[in-house]
Amino acid sequence: MNGPLISIVAPVYNNEVYLPAFIESVLSQVYSNWELILVDDCSKDRSGAICDEYSHKDKRVSAVHLSPNGGISKARNTGIIHSKGEWIFFSDSDDALIPDGISSLAECISDDIDLVSASYLRYVDGVLQRESKASISGMLSIRDYTELIGIIPRCRNLERYVWNKLFRASVIKENSILFNEDLRLFEDVSFVYQYLECCQKGVFCTATPVYSYFRRSGGTAMSSRNHYNDRTLSWLLAYTQIFAIINRMDASWATRNRVREELFDIHNRITDLIREEKRGEEEEKKARTILHSCLHLHDFVIHKSLFFIKEASHKTKSFVRKLHHSVRK
Asked: Is this structure's pTM higher than 0.90?
């Protein structure tokens, strides 16, 4: 199939179990004008060798090996640097592309758009999940798309992942847009907003699924949402960056307010995790410092007011529990 060269960038790390199936899903694409850039992030299993084996079988597949381990953002940035395509598609190497996925994306390309946003299939522990709300179709302005993404209940082609989107390479490279290598969570969501801020054209949304996403029990991202660890603060840091971008863009008050509420909710959730695990005031201070770094004065006042209300409610409930316990004695 004729069409522009599409670069598929896939970070690889200790993924020998699922990696062959992912690569085969790319090799099986109906659309043939693609290149697959496998970035092996210093894997300790056979993943690196598998990348090399496939690169020898098909000239469209290339293997890049990082040393030392740099993380998923470093791997994706390396893929961007090595890409030659007019368009870039980011994939995770433990998922799979639907056989006509790239052709479905390519059919949406026009001179009037900078982004294609598609639907996808979602599997949880091998079980296909129904889409809660039908995906939309058609052209949107950057402003309208920015207003819609992330709203719950969400259309799958309005979610903020990178792996259901096709990005114009020139927008990325001319604006030096890269994944933040300091982030260990939600670096992809931050990248999407960075990209949207630099777009001059529209977005085409397609309801056609192009990708199979597999969520498996024990994933690191879910663990960092439920337990405080060295990755958790990246969740908050990513959203402070997103909030800053939204404030620079021509976004409505409703959108700015929604993202601000997300930011506050994340901060409160992290504070709860810190307290549940008895991490101490120093960890709470780190989270507050990150949050306050992006707030304007009125946002800061809103947060402080909500914080004091929450603290008062927490102390009241604690007092009632102690009083109830003493009465029972």
From this structure: no
